[in-house]
Amino acid sequence: MSNITVILVVEGQSEQTFIREVLAPYLSTKNIFIQPALIGKPGHKGGNVRFDRAFDDIQRLLKQRNNTFISTMFDFFRIDKKWPGLEDIINKTKSGIKLTTEQKAVIIEEATFKAVIKAVPKTIVKNRFIPYFEMHEFEAMLFSDTDVIAEKTGIKKTDLEKITKQYNCPEDINDDPKKAPSKRLEKLKNDYLKVTMGKIISETIGIKNIRKKCQHFDQWLKKLENLKS
């Protein structure tokens, strides 16, 4: 089985650390080697995820090596208003159509793929671009196991369960940026360290268990696992 290299354009240090130290070792056992690349210029600290910035990175990476796959790991609630697919979601919502978290992610991913295909020659893109969006943020996946969060942070499990019982799955956890999963954890534990604790908790839970609770994340990994060089 030949090796597959995937570069993931990400928006922040939490995702960068998770990919490098938790997800990469897991996928390497399947001969899939992933490398995180922080969006924008060196020194970027996350947030401000504009399509033009992401597109510059995506097309540059696609053109560098024709045997490398490119993917993304962005939070839906952080993308700018001009992002492909966002207007479609807004219009559907205004018309009374109720979209699930996964349906919104798929709309954004398909629109992003079409926008890149439109601007970059198909001979370069082919099947090498696999966009992925977390609807809220990486920390939502940590709620796949409240026992582990409680053990590693000292937060009461009952307080964590008050959050999880409101949603169908961890990927749904969020109402607005002020109630993002990381903000909820910081509220329950003032000294919660977003990058460090996110890595420790996700590593302890394990990718296999996260996949069981987070369907969209699982579907994305299946796409990566099925890539052929």
Overview features:
229 residues, alpha/beta, five-stranded parallel sheet, globular
> What share of residues are in beta strands?
5-15%
Total strand segments = 5
Q: Percent range for helical residues?
A: 40-55%
End-to-end gap: 10 Å
Spatial extent as radius of gyration: 17 Å
Arithmetic mean of pLDDT: 90
Structural class per helix/strand content?
alpha/beta
Structure description:
The protein folds into 2 domains: 148 residues, no CATH class; 69 residues, no CATH class. The chain has 11 helices and 5 strands, in the order βαβαβαααββαααααα. Helix 1 packs parallel to helix 9. The radius of gyration is 17 Å and the shape is globular.
Brief synopsis:
With 229 residues, the chain is α/β, with parallel strands linked by helices. Helices cover 51% and strands 11% of the residues. It contains 11 helices and 5 strands; from the N terminus they run βαβαβαααββαααααα.
